[in-house]
Amino acid sequence: MLDSLAIAIGMVHIAAAIALLNGVTTTFGQAKIAAQAIESIARQPEAADSIRTAMFIGLALAETSGIYGLLIAIIMLFANPLVGTLVKLIESTL
Q1: Which of 14, 17, 40, 90 registers the highest number of CB atoms within 10 A of its CB?
Q2: Domain 2-87 is of which CATH architecture?
Q3: Sign of torsion, CA 58 55 53 44?
């Protein structure tokens, strides 16, 4: 039974690491958004205000995705109800 607890906790850590990889991809996405906005403003300076507005909306959405990945990782590591259920099951059998 303790082996299954160790496997469950290990899987939770792997899942949290995968959720945190979202932050890496968010960084690349935000860099692409900023680069495209700068390029667009350089081509059409008269449209800078609308391009900047669209850029900030895109950056906010990309950052939200990264924050959700962090939130999911924190929940899986510290408040995972499945690990607690498995621990109670193991304690009841011992």
Answers
A1: 40
A2: Up-down Bundle (1.20)
A3: negative
- Positive or negative, the CA dihedral 20, 21, 22, 26 is positive
What is the value of pTM for the model shown?
A: 0.71
Burial 20-35 (b: 16+ CB within 10 A, else e): eebeeebeebbeebee
Domain parsing of the chain, residue ranges: 2-87
C-alpha atoms less than 13 angstroms from C-alpha of 86 in its C-beta half-sphere: 14
Q: Do the Cβ atoms of 79 and 5 come closer than 8 Å?
A: no
**For 49-94, what is each residue's pLDDT tens digit?**
999 999 999 999 999 999 999 999 998 888 877 777 877 887 787 7
Cα distances from 74 to residues 18, 28, 59, 69, in angstroms, run 12, 22, 23, 9
